[in-house]
Design a protein that fits this description.
Blueprint lengths: L1 E4 L2 E4 L5 H10 L4 E5 L5 H6 L1 H18 L15 H25 L3 E11 L2 E6 L2 E6 L2 E4 L3 E3 L11 E2 L1 H4 L8 E5 L3 H13 L2 E5 L11 H13 L3 E3 L2 E9 L2 E8 L2 E7 L1 E4 L3 E3 L32 E3 L10 H15 L14 E3 L4 E6 L2 H6 L4 E7 L4 H5 L6 E7 L5 E8 L2 H13 L4 H6 L9 H10 L9
Helix pairs in contact: 1-8, 3-4, 3-6
Bound molecules: flavin-adenine dinucleotide.
């Protein structure tokens, strides 16, 4: 077997693995990255980036339809799906090419193949040219996750995972989305905006489980306006081919309903890819959900074996994985104080309107024993939101009643996936609601809504009639 000797071998080139590899190289380490598919992982190829590109296109169509309100008539927009998919793929290529270029500049070797851990210091890789053993002092597992489904609902021609839904050959006239989490809602909204008749089947009592219902309710209302049918407390029980289409049986409170569709999209969650990695060779067993346990530096129980990203636990988000990658790289390079010690990890959902939140909700803060003060401000009273034709939603600030420190911020509305960064900085820095309220925010801009929500914590929001 051919052999490569290196300092660190990283398994997986998603946002956790590639970021970790680059930082290790910046610290002077010799790095080999084993990736069996494309550089960039799920996020760049079949996740965050392509989904946001399609969502923009759908929003564009929706905006064109309603432009007559401004005196602009463009008629029903026509979609060339093949061109849209090509355009989206161009963005993906540019980003994955960027990672490849950075690898070359930093002399990081990409070994294209499937990795299996052989021992704490060796990883065996199956490549197209044959087997290669990579020996290294440190092994970083960044193998990510993959879409889950139910038995009998295997992915194929009729049942898409998010991956197929991001590269459609034909726009389905009717689409049933099983699972109303963030991936199902984001993609469901794209298809609805593009012209499909979309039904969301969600088992829990509301869409976007895990999200504050105060926020998800606003999105549910807008989704219904966009013609999306939302069936909550409902379970997709079986499906079959019927005529030229499909028939899906959905159960709600013991009652069965047969629904006709042309395509099914399963978005019922993702599972970590930790089964076939050879973890037993280094004395590790993933937990029941398949995650690998780590310490504050992202080192596993086995010294010199590290785990980051979706493989290492919730939240399964790209930026959490990248931050863990940086922490693990610093620890491997022996940097003093290296640790993953983020106070908060923001969450962003690219529905219409968008949702973003960071830190504690009002209920969580109270559960933790905080006495809280709440500030709220609506995008409906913000000039920029109105001029963008996106004056829906609000920002809610949860502050500690004793010392005014911001504990959490929840947002639903225009561009809140961008606005949440200010709130995350505020919480990381231990800022108070007054600190943000006293910071001069440019006018007219959307961040003024966060500033006024902070003023409202003290009952002083100038543009509120409360
Ligand atoms: P991955 O990105 O999954 O990368 C792991 C890589 O490891 C893969 O390329 C895989 O091929 C490789 N690999 C696995 N096993 C082996 C092996 N044995 N040998 C060689 N290679 C291997 N997150 C956000 O933060 N924001 C978003 O807006 C967002 N949108 C999303 C939209 C969709 C449709 C989906 C599906 C996901 C989205 N996510 C989003 C989640 C995000 O993509 C993941 O959290 C992120 O990609 C995880 O990064 P990772 O590096 O841990 O793993």
């Amino acid at each position: 077997m051919a052999e490569i000797k290196t300092d660190v071998v990283v398994i997986g080139a998603g946002p956790a693995g590639y970021v970790c590899a680059i930082r290790l190289a910046q610290y002077g380490k010799k790095v080999v990255v084993v990736e069996e598919a494309e550089l960039g992982g799920t996020c760049l190829n079949v996740g965050c980036i392509p989904s946001k590109a399609l969502i923009l296109a759908g929003q564009f169509m929706e905006d064109a339809r309603s432009a007559s309100e401004m005196g602009i008539t463009v008629g029903e927009p026509k979609l060339d799906l093949a061109q849209l998919v090509d355009w989206k793929q161009g963005i993906v290529k540019r980003l994955t090419g960027g990672v490849e270029m950075l690898f070359k500049k930093r002399s990081i070797e990409w070994l294209k193949g499937t990795a299996r851990i052989a021992s704490p210091n060796a990883v065996d890789v199956k490549t197209a040219e044959g087997a290669v053993r990579v020996t290294a002092l440190d092994v970083v597992v960044a193998s990510g996750s993959e879409p889950s489904t139910f038995p009998g609902w295997e992915f194929g021609e009729h049942i898409w995972s998010s991956t197929e839904a991001l590269a459609p050959k034909k726009l389905p006239a009717r689409l049933v989305v099983v699972g109303g989490g963030y991936i199902g809602m984001e993609l469901g909204m794209f298809y609805a905006h593009a012209g499909s008749k979309v039904t969301i089947v969600e088992a829990t009592p509301g869409i976007l489980p895990g999200t504050d219902p105060e926020l998800s309710k606003v999105v549910a209302r807008k989704a219904k306006k966009a013609g999306i049918e939302i069936l909550t407390g409902s379970f997709a029980r079986e499906w079959k081919k019927k005529g030229k289409g499909l028939e899906i049986t959905v159960e709600n409170g013991g009652e069965m309903r047969a629904m006709a569709s042309d395509q099914i999209l399963m978005t019922v969650g993702r599972k970590p890819r930790t089964q076939d990695l050879g973890l037993d060779a280094v004395g590790l067993t993933p937990d029941k959900q398949g995650f690998i346990a780590t310490d504050h530096q992202r080192q596993t129980r086995t010294r010199h074996v590290w785990a980051i990203g979706d493989a290492a636990g919730q939240p399964m988000l790209a930026h959490k994985g990248s931050a863990e990658g940086l922490a693990a790289a610093a620890a491997i390079a022996g940097k003093p104080g290296a640790a993953f010690d983020a106070k908060v990890v923001p969450a962003v959902i690219f529905t219409d309107p968008e949702i973003a939140y960071v830190g504690l909700t009002e209920a969580e803060a109270k559960e933790k024993g905080h006495e809280v003060r709440i500030g709220k401000f609506s995008f409906g009273a913000n000039g920029r939101a109105l001029s963008l034709r996106r004056a829906e939603g609000f920002v809610k600030v949860v502050a500690d009643a004793q010392d005014d420190v911001i504990l959490g911020v929840q947002m639903v509305g225009p561009e809140v996936t961008e606005l949440i960064a200010e709130a995350a900085v505020a919480i990381e820095a231990g800022l108070t609601a007054e600190d943000l309220a006293l910071t001069v925010h440019a006018h007219p801009t959307l961040p003024e809504v966060l500033m006024e929500a902070c003023e409202d914590v003290h009952g002083l929001a100038v543009h509120s009639a409360k």
